[in-house]
Amino acid sequence: MIRTGRGISTIYYPSGFNGGRDPDLVSLRIKPDGTIDVSNASCEMGQGLKNVVVQITAERLEIEPGQINFDNTNSDTAAFSMDTAGTRSTVIVGNAILAAADDLIGKLKTFVGEKLGVPAAEMSYEKGRTFITTQPEKGMTLAEIGAASNYGGVFLMGTGGYLPEPAPPRDPETGATLPSKIMAYGSCVADVEVDDETGVVRVINLYNCYDMGTVINPLQAEAQADGGNIQGIGMALFEDLAPRFPERMEPYADSFTDYIIPTFMDMPQHSATSFYENYDPNGPYGAKGCGEMVVDTQSPAIVNAIYDAVGVVVDSLPATPEKVLRLIKEKKSK
Amino acid sequence: MFNAIGKPIPRYDGLGHVTGRTIYVSDVTMPGTLTCKVLRCPYYRARIVSLDVTQAKRMPGVYGVITREDVPYNRFAMVPDNHVLAEEITRYRGQPVAAVAAVSKEAALDALAKIKVEYEELEPVFDPEKAMEPDAPQIRPEGNVHLFDGTSPVRRVRRGDIEKGFAEADVIVEGRYTTPCEEHAPLECCSTLAYVDESGKLVLYSKTQGVYFVMGDLANVFQLPMNKLKFIGNTIGGSFGSGNSVATDHIAGLLALKTGKPVRYTLTRAEEMMFTTISTPWIFKIKDGVRRDGKITARHVEVIHDCGAFTELGLYAAEKNANLVAGANLIENLAVDTHMVFTNKLPSGSRRGFGVNVGQFAEQVQLDRDARAVGISPMAIRFINAFHEDDISHVGNRLRAVSTIETLQGVADLAGISLEEQYRTMSSKEVEK
């Protein structure tokens, strides 16, 4: 018969490389029409980096996202990026953008100030316009600066970098070190149905609440959480290249016939995600990063829900029907 | 408060992705491109007695055949102990032995069939616990067990007094947890289009997820300065960590340098699954001392990380895991003992929260066992042990912007769970007296 169960998990996840020391650089250039080129060699692999870059840049320069172009296309032109991994890009590229934007704004003030015969310290920047602080009507827009600088033979480029605090040498006895200054948090509730005659587990509901700090783009954060749910269900119930390991490595999966990842049939009937935006002063605008955290909560919550349903602990992932059924039989025979 | 932050702006590249306009590395074509195919060792562990590519080189349509003799520097990866092309001893099934660039896939496969390799099959070891035994086949000259800091087979975390903590406990709860070999499963398989441009620069259209993460490594393999090496890409069809390990860039680049022609090396789905880095298995043995009120007074975690045949990202994963495996709980008396072991399977790559998600599976299932042992709810034990603001982490640094309690409250709200008063009103900012 079908038995239902509910399980909980709570996890935390560091942003950036373990131990820091993973910098990124960003450059911001102004085109003749005043639009902005952002350059950084991070990879877009579906996670939504490009929107994060555009939105953080737009926020700092107080301009519309549509005025920004992102170039990560090749290593001859794009600024250095340590890697695109470790839940690092939002925080590290984001902080590098803020540094580059501040540098650009300083250069805009100098450029416009020289045109108007006023020291940079007496200039202000607001919403794409650089002007004399005491005479706001005297100034230049980004479009005017773009034309005047490029056609005037002046290269206005803002550059910036960010280096996460490097960990001290790890103490060999206590292990004391610094994994990351930024930690994101998440908790999950999973509801499952377990068929105690076949061992088949279905995830019915998945609820997650994440603190990834300030959410840069809620559409993307929710989509990433949905993707995380799919991968988390895969890790919990299906994914195993060598199911007979450790006895032997064969059979070994070589196609999606044998290596099962979830499809739409395996999606929960109901899933919901909420965000607790705990502002982190070390992240850009309080963001903490979200990439890997959202694949972590599901497998323990689902395995705990299986226990709640049928009273067995699946301590070896994945919780395949064979394993669940064997555990149920062992429990009955005791 | 914000102008652009927090706004649900549609994806920068979303329309291109869903209408098929996005150009991925696998889509790029170039006139006169050769196809690369790789000969792989069929054994989990073997000695290469002889390797003869003479006949393969003479096959029609073949422009280049390479073995380790043709590689300027044959070691690569984050910890550079992996072999671009196999040396005398192979350590996993599918390890690349030789590579061919030819005018077509068929010509390349025909040439592979003409490569003569004599292997002496050696006894492999797969189970990391067996690999740690003294009489196990030694798969690396340095031994099967990694020495942390060059000296210690154990990577330690120590906090408080674990014996005192266990003495304070009312019950001792033990569990053993394992995770399997897992695949990244990106939509786009690993792929490289390599060519030498008009200035003599090697250009790689690459599916890497970190152009600069692998650039130094590959510059070393090719023995080229970085101004003679260019990566194009950075919009790829999924990676999930697979793109931190080099699977095609090195071989395609070597063949482009050798032949002077563009070379395409794209893995089939079967090759992607069978012959690229994976999440290798982990074993966690957790022993907790728990007080009647649900407080964990002591925890000992023994970790065994099966790193596979070469280090790749396995050492990084073991270090990160050790820092975080005790979970988002304040445990005053803690010991973590991590071992990393080499076996004859694919190297440990980065994958979807690697090192961390496996430990959190073990820790969170153990926490439910703890709760049952003292008769409290799974929700209660998480609130009772949660980190608070300014608590010191397991490895000695102060935690800021802590949200275990608040995310538990948030998810309870989503799931319609009514929390007991003391948990509903609890805050990470306030520590109970």
Automatic annotation (TrEMBL), chain A:
Chain ranges of the Aldehyde oxidase/xanthine dehydrogenase second molybdopterin binding domain: 3-268
Signal peptide: none
KW Zinc-finger (keyword) present: no
Organism: Pseudoflavonifractor gallinarum
Family annotation (Pfam families): MoCoBD_2 (PF20256)
Name of this protein: Molybdopterin-dependent oxidoreductase
Keywords: Molybdenum
Automatic annotation (TrEMBL), chain B:
Positions of the Aldehyde oxidase/xanthine dehydrogenase a/b hammerhead domain: 19-123
Tree of life domain: Bacteria
Sorted UniProt keywords: Molybdenum, Oxidoreductase
Gene3D superfamilies on file: Aldehyde oxidase/xanthine dehydrogenase, a/b hammerhead (3.90.1170.50), Aldehyde oxidase/xanthine dehydrogenase, molybdopterin binding domain (3.30.365.10)
PANTHER family reported for this sequence: ALDEHYDE OXIDASE 1-RELATED (PTHR11908:SF132), XANTHINE DEHYDROGENASE (PTHR11908)
Protein name according to UniProt: Xanthine dehydrogenase family protein molybdopterin-binding subunit
Lineage: Bacteria, Bacillati, Bacillota, Clostridia, Eubacteriales
